[in-house]
C-alpha cells in the first residue's frame, strides 16, 4: 500500500482562519457564543418582556382613568357637568321665582324653538338628600319641557331635560344671586319683576334679610347704582298695585317712577285703580297701561307751544333729525321724526329672525328710556 504524498505542508494559525458568521434573528442582538440561549430560554425572556410592557401600559391607562374620574367628580361638584334629569324629579319650591304675573307671550316661541332645534342652554339644579333636585335657574326652559311632554306624551324625548347639577349645601343667598344674575343677562326683565323678587326674598322666612331695600343691595350687586335705585322706586308701586295688575312687567321706567312719586305724595293709587277698572272685566296690556298713565297724570295732552312774537328771529323746531354712521356692512343713515324712526343700511333685514329683530328693537328703545 503506497503512502500518499502531500503537495503542500503549510502551517496556518487557527486564529487566522475565518469563522462563518453567526446566524442572526431579526429583532435580537447576537450574543457571544458562550452566552447563547436556547429556544426555551429565549421564549421565556420574550414572554417576560411582553408581560412587563403590558403591565406598564395597564398602569399608565389606570392612572389616566383615575385622573379623568377625579376631574369628572370635581367638575360635577362645581355643577359644570351636564346630565339628563327626569322632569318629574325636579322641584321649584326653594326659591321664589320672578315670574311674570301676566301671560308669558314668549313661552310659545321658546317651546317651538326647543321642539325644532333642541335646548341649547341646560338648566341648573341642586341635588337634594332624598334623590330629587331643586331648580336654581331655568324656570321657563323647564316649563317648556313639561308642556312638550304633556302635549306629545313622548317621555323618551321630553321626559328628561339637560341640566348642570351641583352638590347641595350652597347658601340660600348665593342661590338667589345665581338666579338673579342669569335674569339680569336677559335685557327684557323689567323693574317691576326685579322689585317683586326683592319683596319675595325679604318675605322668605329662610332668608336672613327682611328689608326689601337691603335685599336689592344683596341680590343686585352686579347692577349699577342707578339701576338699583330704580328697583327700589318700584317696590312701593308693586306693594300697592301688584295684586291688581296683570301686566306689571310692561310698565316702563318713566311711568313707574311717576306712579311711585304719586304714592310718595300720599295718593291712594290702589283705590283709584279699582275705581277706574270697576266693571271692565279683564284688561288688555294696553288698557292697563292707559289707566296707569292716567293715574300718573301722563295722559294730559301737551300744551301747544305759544306762537312766536312778531318779528322774532327764533327758528322753528326741527321737523326731523338725521345722521350717518359706519358699520361693517357699509355706511348707514338714521332719520328720526315725530312718531317715526328709520334706519337705512345695506342689509336685507327680512333675512333676520323676527324674534331677534324684535328683541333688538326693544333693547334699543329701553336704552332710549334710560
TrEMBL record:
Residues 1-33, 298-331 are annotated as: Disordered. It comes from the Bacteria. Residues 83-184 form the ParB-like N-terminal domain. GO terms for cellular component: chromosome. GO terms for biological process: chromosome segregation. Keywords: Coiled coil. Residues 40-67 form a coiled coil. PANTHER family: CHROMOSOME-PARTITIONING PROTEIN PARB-RELATED (PTHR33375). SUPFAM superfamilies: ParB/Sulfiredoxin. This is ParB family chromosome partitioning protein. CDD domains: RepB_like_N (cd16405).
Amino acid at each position: 500500500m503506497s503512502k500518499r504524498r502531500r503537495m503542500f505542508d503549510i502551517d496556518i494559525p487557527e486564529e487566522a482562519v475565518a469563522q462563518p458568521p453567526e446566524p442572526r434573528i431579526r429583532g435580537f442582538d447576537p450574543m457571544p457564543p458562550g452566552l447563547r440561549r436556547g429556544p426555551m430560554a429565549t421564549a421565556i425572556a420574550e414572554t417576560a418582556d411582553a408581560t412587563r410592557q403590558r403591565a406598564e401600559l395597564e398602569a399608565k391607562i389606570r392612572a389616566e382613568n383615575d385622573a379623568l374620574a377625579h376631574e369628572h367628580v370635581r367638575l360635577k361638584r362645581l355643577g359644570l357637568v351636564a346630565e339628563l334629569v327626569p322632569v318629574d324629579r325636579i322641584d321649584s319650591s326653594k326659591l321664589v321665582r320672578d315670574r311674570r304675573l301676566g301671560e308669558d307671550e314668549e313661552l310659545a316661541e321658546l317651546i317651538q324653538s326647543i321642539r325644532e332645534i333642541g335646548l341649547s342652554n341646560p338648566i341648573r339644579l341642586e341635588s337634594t338628600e332624598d334623590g330629587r333636585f331643586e331648580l336654581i335657574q331655568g324656570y321657563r326652559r323647564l316649563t317648556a319641557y313639561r308642556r312638550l311632554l304633556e302635549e306629545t306624551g313622548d317621555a323618551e324625548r321630553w321626559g328628561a331635560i339637560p341640566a348642570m347639577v351641583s352638590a347641595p349645601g350652597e347658601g340660600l343667598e348665593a342661590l338667589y344671586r345665581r338666579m338673579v344674575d342669569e335674569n339680569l343677562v336677559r335685557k327684557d326683565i323689567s323693574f317691576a319683576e326685579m322689585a317683586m323678587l326683592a319683596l319675595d326674598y325679604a318675605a322668605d322666612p329662610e332668608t336672613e334679610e327682611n328689608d326689601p331695600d337691603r335685599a336689592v343691595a344683596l341680590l343686585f350687586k352686579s347692577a349699577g347704582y342707578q339701576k338699583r335705585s330704580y328697583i327700589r322706586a318700584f317696590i312701593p308701586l308693586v306693594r300697592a298695585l301688584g295684586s291688581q295688575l296683570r301686566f306689571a312687567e310692561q310698565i316702563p321706567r318713566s311711568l313707574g317712577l311717576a306712579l311711585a312719586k304719586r304714592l310718595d305724595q300720599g295718593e291712594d293709587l290702589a283705590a283709584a285703580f279699582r275705581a277706574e277698572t270697576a266693571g271692565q272685566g279683564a284688561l288688555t296690556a294696553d288698557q292697563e297701561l292707559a289707566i296707569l298713565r292716567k293715574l300718573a297724570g301722563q295722559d294730559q295732552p301737551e300744551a301747544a307751544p305759544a306762537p312766536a312774537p312778531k318779528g322774532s328771529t327764533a327758528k322753528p323746531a326741527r321737523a326731523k333729525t338725521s345722521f350717518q354712521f359706519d358699520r361693517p356692512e357699509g355706511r348707514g343713515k338714521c332719520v328720526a321724526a315725530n312718531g317715526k324712526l328709520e334706519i337705512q343700511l345695506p342689509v336685507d333685514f327680512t333675512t333676520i329672525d323676527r324674534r331677534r329683530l324684535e328683541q333688538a328693537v326693544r333693547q334699543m328703545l329701553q336704552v332710549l328710556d334710560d
